[in-house]
Fold each of these.
Amino acid sequence: MPATALQLALPVPLPTLFDYTPPPGHMAGPGDVGRRLRVPFGPREMVGIVTGLVPSAPDAPPLREALGFLEPCPVLTGELWDSLHWLARYLHAPLGEVLATALPATLRRGEALPDIADHGWQLTEAGYTALPSLRAGAPRQLAEWLQAQGQCPEMRLDIAQPGWRAPMRSLHKRGLVEEIDMTMWPPVPTPQIGPTLNHAQQAAADAIRAANGYAPFLLDGVTGSGKTEVYLDAIADCLARGRQALVLVPEIGLTPQMLARFEQRLGVPVHALHSGLNDNERARTWWAAANGSAQVIVGTRSAVFVPLPNAGLIVIDEEHDSSYKQFDGIRYHARDFAIVRAKTMGIPVVLGSATPSLETLQNAQAGRYSMLRLTERAGDAKPPRVRVLDVRKRPLQAGMAPEMLSAIRSAIDAGGQVLVFKNRRGYAPMLLCHDCGWSAHCPRCSTPDKPTPMTAHAGGKRLQCHHCGNRRPAPSACPDCAGLALEPQGNGTERIEELLAAQFTDVPVIRIDRGSTQRRDALQQHFDTLGSQPGILIGTQMLAKGHDLPNLTLVAVVGIDEGLYSADFRSGEKLSQLLVQVAGRAGRADKPGEVLLQTHHPDHPLLHTLINGGYHAFADEELALRDAASLPPYAHLAVLRAEAKHVDAPTRFLAEAKHLLEGVNADVQAMQLHGPLPAPMPRRAGYQRMQLVISASQRKTLHQALGTVMPTIRTLPDARKLRWSLDVDAVDL
Ligand code: ADP
Ligand code: ZN
Ligand code: ZN
């Protein structure tokens, strides 16, 4: 009988699988599939996943011997295993890299499976005694919180006290806290009752409850219409059937408050998965999902990879959000993969948004998804009034018209809060010499044809490239003419903050953007600082997403004009979503809200359609245009990108790829190839970037062609020297 070898997927950029003889003393069997195995690879050691068994031919060269399994059971099984194979085929990506992406980092690195016993913490006797005399700071704050909680499981700490481990260690060293076993701990108090669902919510909830097997729903509800209540109802029903629920949310939407609301309402522990957790915490949640002890998992993009052996429901909140698409490595789309998984598992999947993506709307129109609509705000909240402010010829201060400033004054005087939205962070988008016209450009991102300005920060004293992160002090004199007339041009959030802080000295003026708010909890701290008192928030798109600000009465939209004339075919969709979402922040509770939108293009068709007809009027027009132009969702795209210090190699590589693709399909109607052309950003961080866009009206045509040529493309001589990638269903072209 021929000996059996193990076939492995390894995290390497090669489309092949690798054969090894089993580790000493092990007889390979079907139960090995999905297990982690340590193997020698070249001079190194690697962790791979067993994908199957192969007979080892006696006359073939001897195989290398595997070193050992990491655990006695598979880590990837069942539906997730099958879906990941599908994903690798769909993205034309190496299976080993896809499997590695799906695993939590600790497991990928070969660390042991996490311990998911329920650990918790409590204050010791000494802790209670010492508490009043502790110095102010994180340990004291944590100790006070623990005092209020009594005993607290680590899972709860992860959610309510992000970053608790360091202060806990310091308390532990001093003997003020002790670790306890919480297996017997009653997890969460009895669920709180939510508001009674209104008619539309109830109809949506009933439809989801009635679903049997795979059933995709688009929950299309205006901001504040109570979509979350519908999700909660569906999750409660899923739990009542004894099944697991997965909820995907955009990066910025996953706040401790949101998790707490879910826990209180569902009455079970909610397991979080987001970038604010460390690798061990993430691995614990992943593994708790795998063994079924995690019933509700709420997470950002990569949570789409949690194993769900007992799944009952998937919810994707803000399904249009761009954070669901992974922009490097394995370029998956979490929403799309979630739908594939739901289909494989035969369960309902709910996509919620006030501004659904055109892909999803088209799926709904074609009857592939059931449409559930919430057209009115829940409770007593009224939709905001939108006014366009024509600022042509008006004197502007920090880019704001006098009417805008007086509207802010009135809102503040009436006791309200104001959100000023500006889609540009920094002080000014450009530093210009008024004497000779020189301007500061990023040396690493500019080309002779396309200079990339550096953004002025810190009142114009520092320069920063928002594309590659390059920073330097601003010159004090013009490098070209030595003149001193360097002036920041245009306006960013910092400049608006400077003006408003000077004009509104009586209320807090808080800037929220990636510059001021690096940490996840910082955002909430900003909101807490403001509380319900009158004040001004200034921010970029970070502020556009689902935060509930009940006292917000005015949304001032400043400077969206840059977005109105962009070349990207998706720019209209993105701008409309942003405008509608940001406008939706106003008047969430009992206070009526107003949106003031200042522009130099009051007659722009997009604004006209949005303001008179709303997002759906825009979407209908846009879908018709996309159809006529054969653009997604009516065509299917993949982009092959390549970059290098010099432009020749990427161009050659893409030209060869194009040649291969042309050889596959003689029918030019079925598939179109554009390029090789410079990428929209032709140079970044010193790399010249080229792209080849491949499009087809039929998904099948595209995938057959890619399936045929990708193995050859990987073996091209340039493929090893260049940075290159294939992006199936690319969203940024
Ligand atoms: P969305 O996610 O659609 O923007 P939310 O679910 O956050 O909306 O609900 C908006 C607000 O309306 C929340 O404060 C919520 O508590 C409240 N709300 C939702 N449904 C109801 C209801 N049926 N009755 C009263 N208030 C509700
Ligand atoms: Zn000059
Ligand atoms: Zn740069």
Amino acid sequence: MNVTLTIAGSDSGGGAGIQADLKTFQELGTFGTSVITAITSQNTQGVHAVHAIPVQDVESQLKAVLDDFPIQAAKTGMLFSAAIITTVSRLMKAHNIPLVVDPVMIAKGGASLLQQEAITAMKTELLPLATVITPNIPEAEVLTGMTIVDDATMIAAGQALLTIGVKVAIIKGGHLAGSHTARDIIVSTDDIFIVETPFITTKDTHGTGCTFSAALTAELAKGTALREAVTIAKQFIQAAIQHPLHLGSGHGPTNHAA
Ligand code: PLP
């Protein structure tokens, strides 16, 4: 059995964060382990409270998992603080595990999932360890300081992320204004390619970023080559958005079992 790891926040609503990651890991045939960085009180209407887990408890969870499980790929989601990023980076650096960084910053409802001062720690400590980073357009803009409006600026932002030490940058274009497709551009030192699916208009998109990066992590754990892994992850999130569960009165979860 291929073993995966998510280092992320808990979403009590079950559509994003740790819960989305573990469901996705399972759907894609891997055994998921988890390190919880924060507990969010959350439903389809939004984030009502955030409680960061003390950094020593993040550290002991991560040590426990790394010491005993043959983790084949890991992902990070909501890391919340510079102190948590520093701890996670220090421990992950000692292991040679493919790492997908989903640079979670702000929930769709506007709640902050990453403190402002943690952005520098993310860039200097975590990103140099990242095999893949999966920012959406606003996240890529924060990390690079660039303004992204089209394919050329998406590629330029991807290349800027490579200079920080990331091996592969997947710039997710779903947030581009006026877009009729969800067009993602994948940039690595030796390859640039695009994966694109029709844009689906629905309010049930909670946890899309978490689910996509978890699907990618599961495929990397299974040894799937990058291009195919990205394509499978894209298909997985497309199906999850296409078959909503209509749960709750606000932004509902995607369907991980679609
Ligand atoms: N809550 C947690 C714990 C998360 O990790 C994420 C992931 O980005 C979100 C909420 C954001 O969910 P969304 O912005 O898709 O509603």
